[in-house]
Amino acid sequence: MIILMHSSKTMRPPASGPAPTGTPVLLDRAEELVAHVRTLSHEQLARVMAVSADLAAKTGRQYAAWSTAADQQAPAAGSFVGDIYSGLRVDSFDPADRAYADAHLRILSGLYGILRPFDGISPYRLEMGHRLAPGVAKNLYQFWGTAIAEQLPGSGRIVNLAANEYSRTVLPHVDPDRVVTPTFLTVDPASKRPKFVVVHAKIARGCFARWLVTERVTDTAAAIREFADIGYRYDESLSSPNEPAFVCREFGGKGLSVRLT
Q1: What does the pLDDT profile of the chain (261 residues) look like in tens digits?
Q2: Which residue, 124, 170, 175, 231, has fewest beta-carbon neighbours within 10 Å?
Q3: Is the C-alpha dihedral spanning 12, 14, 18, 23 positive or negative?
Q4: 208 SS3 class
């Protein structure tokens, strides 16, 4: 079983802590993208990435400093900051969890393509949906093509916890019967009906990935339905074989997000 997550916009700078244990499998392609981005002015970065002038300048400095040197690397899963990573809580993994995650968890990235959780990476900003300036490819979907999907096993279940922007690099290139995409809904207090709440769903995806790793969940649809963390329970009436639905009446993950204190 492979668990798919995606990178986040915000990253921590490299700091003292556990050292990376791997190298991104598509690092040569990442270096190609870095070389391209370094040719862009701050004005071009602002236009291509649809960000402010200040953020474009910061991004330019980030790419100027980007390096594969050991002292500029940090493990991928510990570098990304966001609700899905708050739910994952990778820093609390024990050695056996880390080994299992390294074998089964993959992070989709605009710059690196695909990462194992403890591959060494340098801070960057490049969302999968960004268009590229002329010279490399029309966009990152064209740039990556089938390269990301080719890094996945040819058989076995794929639990898709990545945003659509990122899963588009994988799903068109694999058998759809292999893919399970859980949905996470919260009961609205007013209507009493389940609805999609972005922050809740992001945290839940991270918690779900953590549960799959720490519980060594087997590759069966029935086992996946047993998830019962931060208030979520499987809801058969809202589910289909490839899209199991989990509903919470009271969201229990508020303490995992700075936005939900």
Answers
A1: 999 999 999 998 887 678 899 999 999 999 999 999 999 999 999 998 899 999 999 999 999 999 999 888 999 999 999 999 999 999 999 999 999 999 999 999 999 999 999 999 999 999 998 887 666 788 999 999 999 999 999 999 999 999 999 999 999 999 999 999 999 999 999 999 999 999 999 999 999 999 999 999 977 778 889 999 999 999 999 999 899 999 999 999 988 876 664
A2: 175
A3: positive
A4: helix
Distance CA 120, CA 202 (A): 24
**To which residue do tokens 């949906």 refer?**
129
Bridge pairing between strands 183-187 and 194-195:
antiparallel
Q: What is the spatial distance between Cα 89 and Cα 77, in angstroms, rounded to a whole number?
A: 9
Q: What is the pTM of this model?
A: 0.95
Please say whether the beta carbons of 26 and 113 come within 8 A: yes
